[in-house]
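Duplicate of #3305? Posting structure anyway:
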């Protein structure tokens, strides 16, 4: 399985250490929120220099406060600093409460705004000159774009039908949060694949992010998820995707249980159409460190194609 983890630590040095360990443990990717160290791109660039294969992605950078031409140039700078392929830019329009309250910006047409943004950004990161005038965003990039040493894929955070069409048509896929397998199967995968096919684009990636806890007491595990994920229940886009997935709360959407159950739930997520799993490990019980180690051990085992345990040499 292609399994990644949530990235982030208090300092750039710790982020580098985390990336080295995740790569050594067989994980395919790390996903960083926009608030990591205030801006995750600089420590991601450092981590990319100190690793060789692991994908480092943003999940996600907010579109509203950063012009797509500036965003593309930031990505080009990080890609050059990393010195290798492996950077993936996940972007999204965020939420009305963030955009209006934190930035003081209008949030009247987030679908149109995100579509124009994605058209510009993906064109730039494909090495195209972009000459575009839209309702919300415009860009005239000739002579204003840094060279790209290698491609930087773009994933759009897409839960609504419109943004799934945009992700399939322009981006390389979508990065999700709080979308249960039922929602991936019946809502997300069909729409994004149809849009990609219609546009003549390759099959899109679907990176499915969910809380994960390997723990024998399922009720206790869901309570632990509820304690850390309650804010998502109040956001309209998450409420809709949870409902489509048959989950009443974020805790209901989490992947929890003993090793066999978690293994089966992860497999069902892939069977539903996810190409990658982004696991946010949630510690449970009186020994949080031991709980996190148990969950990580199973995820690392599943992430390794040969089933080797962490620290074992692969043949």
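Output from current build:
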């Amino acid at each position: 399985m292609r399994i990644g983890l949530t990235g982030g630590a208090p300092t750039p040095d710790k982020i580098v250490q985390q990336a080295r360990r995740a790569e050594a443990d067989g994980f395919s990717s790390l996903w960083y929120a926009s608030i990591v160290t205030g801006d995750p791109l600089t420590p991601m660039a450092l981590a990319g220099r100190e690793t060789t294969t692991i994908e480092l992605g943003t999940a996600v950078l907010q579109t509203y406060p950063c012009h797509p031409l500036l965003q593309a140039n930031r990505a080009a700078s990080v890609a050059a600093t990393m010195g290798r392929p492996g950077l993936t830019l996940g972007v999204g329009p965020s939420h009305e409460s963030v955009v209006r309250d934190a930035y003081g910006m209008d949030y009247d047409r987030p679908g149109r705004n995100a579509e124009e943004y994605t058209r510009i950004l993906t064109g730039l990161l494909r090495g195209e000159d972009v000459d575009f005038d839209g309702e919300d965003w415009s860009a005239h990039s000739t002579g204003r774009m840094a060279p790209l040493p290698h491609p930087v894929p773009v994933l759009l955070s897409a839960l609504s039908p419109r943004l799934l069409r945009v992700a399939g048509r322009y981006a390389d896929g979508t990065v999700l949060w709080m979308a249960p397998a039922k929602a991936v199967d019946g809502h997300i995968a069909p729409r994004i694949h149809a849009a990609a096919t219609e546009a003549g684009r390759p099959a899109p990636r679907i990176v499915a992010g969910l809380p994960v806890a390997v723990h024998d007491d399922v009720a206790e595990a869901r309570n632990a998820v509820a304690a850390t994920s309650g804010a998502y229940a109040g956001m309209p886009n998450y409420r809709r995707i949870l409902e489509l997935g048959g989950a009443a709360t974020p805790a209901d959407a989490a992947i929890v249980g003993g090793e066999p159950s978690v293994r089966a739930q992860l497999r069902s997520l892939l069977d539903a159409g996810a190409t990658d799993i982004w696991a946010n490990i949630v510690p449970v019980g009186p020994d949080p460190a031991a709980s996190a180690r148990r969950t990580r051990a199973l995820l690392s085992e599943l992430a390794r194609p040969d089933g080797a345990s962490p620290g074992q040499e692969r043949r």
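Confirmed duplicate; merging threads. The chain has one domain: 3-303. DSSP finds twelve helices and twelve strands in the chain.
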